[in-house]
Design a protein that fits this description.
This protein has helices at about 1-40, 45-125, 135-145, 170-175, and strands at about 150-155, 160, 190. It is mainly α. A 3-stranded mixed β-sheet has the order 2-1-3. The longest helix has about 80 residues, at about 45-125. The chain is rod-shaped, with a radius of gyration of 42 Å.
């Protein structure tokens, strides 16, 4: 869209310049006719006739140069116009594709949400029998807070998520296996390797 807009600006500038050239050449032609009329009136004075003829030739030359410039600008304007039409057609085609993709993504996203809800329900159903409610809520809260990474492995005394060392009393609690132990730094649930 930005390229289309920039090409339209260039096209508008070219069209403005073409109109300026057309207006100026119209004025130059009027001056040329006036000079030629003056030359016809002054039949007797050779110097005046020569001056008028020189002025008329100069005006013809200026008109020809401006018309050539105008033709070049018209060609450039036509190129810009055809490029704008082509870009608009491509944009329309890509917009249709984008709309179709957006619709498909929305359908897939809705389907994924339904599957995720079913999976979570199934997980809660099978796991909640073995795990107490407080531990399950802690795990689910950490899953959400840590973008799906609620657990951290323990390598020796070091949490592998944040690489901080656990305190000795936490290591004892972990070895006993009666309670969930959270890393004091990253809050993830620590599990031994």
């Amino acid at each position: 869209q930005a390229e289309i807009d920039s090409r339209r600006v260039v096209l508008r500038d070219l069209q403005t310049r073409i109109r300026e050239i057309e207006d100026h050449t119209t004025l130059q032609r009027q001056r040329q006719r006036k000079v030629e009329a003056e030359a016809m009136k002054s039949r007797g004075d050779v110097a005046m006739i020569a001056a008028f003829q020189h002025q008329a030739r100069t005006l013809k030359h200026e008109i020809a140069e401006e018309e050539d410039e105008g033709l070049i600008l018209v060609g450039q304007a036509e190129e810009q116009e055809s490029a704008v039409v082509e870009l608009e057609a491509r944009l329309a085609a890509e917009s249709a594709t984008f709309t179709e993709l957006r619709k498909n993504i929305a359908i897939e996203l809705e389907d994924a949400k339904v599957r995720e809800a079913a999976l979570l329900e199934r997980r809660r159903g099978c796991c909640s029998k073995d795990v107490d409610a407080v531990s399950l809520r802690l795990y689910e809260r950490l899953l959400e807070a840590r973008q799906g990474d609620a657990l951290a492995e323990l390598d020796g005394k070091v949490c592998q998520s944040c690489f901080m060392e656990l305190r000795p009393n936490q290591l004892v609690q972990l070895a006993q296996g009666r309670t969930l132990v959270q890393c004091p730094n990253c809050d993830r649930i620590v599990v031994p390797r």
